[in-house]
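Handout, section B. The chain below has 129 residues.
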Amino acid sequence: MSERKKSLPIWILLVSGFFSILEITVSFSIWLTPQSVLEQVDLGAKGVNYLIWFWAVRQFALGFIFGYATLKKSIPMLTLAYIFFLVMFVGDFVIGVAEKENSLIIAAIVMCTISAAMLYALNRVKNER
């Protein structure tokens, strides 16, 4: 088997590494400055910090998983991470529609498309092996 078929294409690793850094950055942004992300939420209300921390940890975990899978160059791990990403953004799409928030709808559609494309690319690489 050639060396080319043994490893993942660099572009897949770069995209996955970018998502890792993005998710970890978002988690710290949510945790340290929630007012920059949650403009419409009363941050003084009881229990809101609890939910913010849950959200920040979810984002950090996803970023960590993407980073670990990227470093390991693991197709199965990256596939699971992108499936989680896809499900998460389908949920964001539903929330965007329910709240009539166009920016969330557009972002969710873009990220669902990217996630689906990455799943397709990973499947192609896996099948080439």
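Note. Residues 94 and 100 are 10 Å apart (CA to CA). Compare this with the example in section A.
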